[in-house]
TrEMBL record:
The lineage of its organism: Bacteria, Pseudomonadati, Pseudomonadota, Betaproteobacteria, Burkholderiales. This is Phosphonate metabolism protein. Pfam families: DUF1045. InterPro entries: DUF1045. It comes from the Bacteria.
């Protein structure tokens, strides 16, 4: 039975945002393949993007989790299908910001957009939690709870992640944690490369399951679940089928 080490439910960027983002990170999360860099590319870019490249271009809805004993990948697949069909498509504007020491595409200061995204994220976290195995002490320790606020500690204890519900911040990570000078240089390069190519709003029409096949493996896309009921498979799709060879 093909069972991935961890599963995650993400929002996969679409359109120009996806094409720009995966080229920036240097990896196609659909296939898991590295993308070649131009010879004249800034040599620091691979180091800047090492951490987000591992997880693939995404915005977190439900962070990586191991399947709870007694549940199945097929059951998770059915639950995500049902959840996706209950959603309606919408669009979001994105803006580049520094967040906790890294660069990310974030939502603008628009209460309506935040509420729409937050409602989707809350639903994904809550409805799919029966499939999440409880966090181990080592997993909790890796989140450095002593450095978190009390609300974040409570979320970590109950939901396995400190940034959900009231502590959730939508973002699409574009760099790892950088020093102030590197952060400025990376932001300058990002803005120069993007130009006006990313001026439009990004459609939100699906949620996506990413998988980590084995510990330390990079995450790859398993399956996209359209809000219209359509499903599109990618490289990790076999990890959603308990009966696959």
């Amino acid at each position: 039975m093909p069972l991935a080490y961890r599963y995650a439910v993400y929002l996969a960027p679409a359109g120009a945002w996806r094409e720009f983002g995966r080229a920036w990170l240097g990896r196609d999360e659909e296939s898991g393949q590295r993308l070649p860099r131009a010879r004249e590319e800034d040599p620091r870019l691979d180091a800047w993007t090492d951490a987000p490249r591992h997880y693939g271009l995404h915005a977190t809805l439900k962070p990586p989790f191991r399947l709870r004993p007694g549940t199945t990948a097929t059951g998770l697949d059915e639950a995500v299908r049902a959840l996706a069909r209950m959603q309606k498509p919408f669009h979001i504007a994105l803006t580049l910001r520094a967040l906790r020491g890294f660069l990310a595409w974030c939502l603008p200061d628009d209460a309506g957009t935040h509420a729409r995204v937050r409602a989707l994220a809350d639903r994904v976290v809550r409805d799919l939690d029966p499939y999440r195995a409880p966090s181990t002490p080592a997993e909790i320790a890796r989140r450095r709870p002593e450095q978190l606020t009390l609300p974040q500690q409570r979320m970590l204890a109950e939901w396995g992640y400190p940034y959900v519900f009231d502590t959730y911040t939508f973002h699409i990570t574009l760099t790892g944690n950088l020093g102030a000078t590197e952060l400025d240089h990376a932001e300058e390069l990002l803005r120069a490369r993007a130009g006006r190519a990313l001026d439009g709003a990004m459609p939100v029409e699906a949620i996506t399951v990413y998988v980590q096949p084995r510990p330390d493996d990079p995450f790859i896309v398993a399956r996209h679940y359209g809000f219209d009921g359509t499903v599109r498979d990618a490289a990790g799709a076999r990890y959603m089928d308990d009966d696959a060879p």
